[in-house]
Design a protein that fits this description.
- The protein folds into 2 domains: 120 residues, Response regulator (Rossmann fold), CATH 3.40.50.2300; 64 residues, Arc Repressor Mutant, subunit A.
- The protein is 57% helix and 11% strand.
- The chain contains 8 helices and 5 strands.
- A 5-stranded parallel beta sheet has the order 2-1-3-4-5, with helices on both faces.
- Helix 1 links the parallel strand 1 and strand 2.
- Helix 3 runs parallel beside helix 4, helix 6 packs across helix 8 and helix 7 packs across helix 8.
- The protein starts with 23 loop residues before the first strand and ends in a 6-residue tail after the last helix.
Length: 225
Amino acid sequence: MSAAEPQQPVADGDQSHVPPLTTRVVIAEDEALIRLDLKEMLEEEGYSVVGEAGDGQKAVELAREHRPDLVILDVKMPILDGISAAEKIAEESIAPVLMLTAFSQRELVERARDAGAMAYLVKPFSKSDVVPAIEMAVSRFTELRALEKEVADLSQRLETRKLVDRAKSVLQTEYGLSEPAAFRWIQKTSMDRRLSMHQVAEAVIQDATERQQQKGQAKEPGQDQ
């Protein structure tokens, strides 16, 4: 690989989930039974539920008051729907948002993402679904904050994010890294080599492209004849 890469990444292996001490969560779900079930799931996994709401407006108020580590919002709620609430929370950069939805239509998912949601969870869900979704939301929010610090211009930030996503995909596929580990590797390489994450991501993608081209050439018949 190019000089941007000090060495090949090493997979983290199967790490058990250990939430930070203590991850504070606000839940907003208008169905009380689902809200209670979700709260129990979270507390069993070591999370601390610091606020509960039955509508989007109250969720925004609780997020502003508690400044939690995560906000979980149902899409369809009274007074203010979940997507509108997510937009307000994202605008103020309060916390990552995980959306709950009974549907997984592409249009709805895209609306939630455009509003600032970092991940989504389709109902009904189990405890085994909740933790990975939370970790995805938190890791993507961390990435976004890091990119915001590095790139002030919004258009350049979006371009860098797309490149970083492509580079993460390469690292996940070729080296078996998890998505958060792939981003941490890009971020660490950026700091170690005093390069931007944009430059590191470009180097990862370019190296993968060159390797694919070399493999293609090696398979061409008649090369040594």
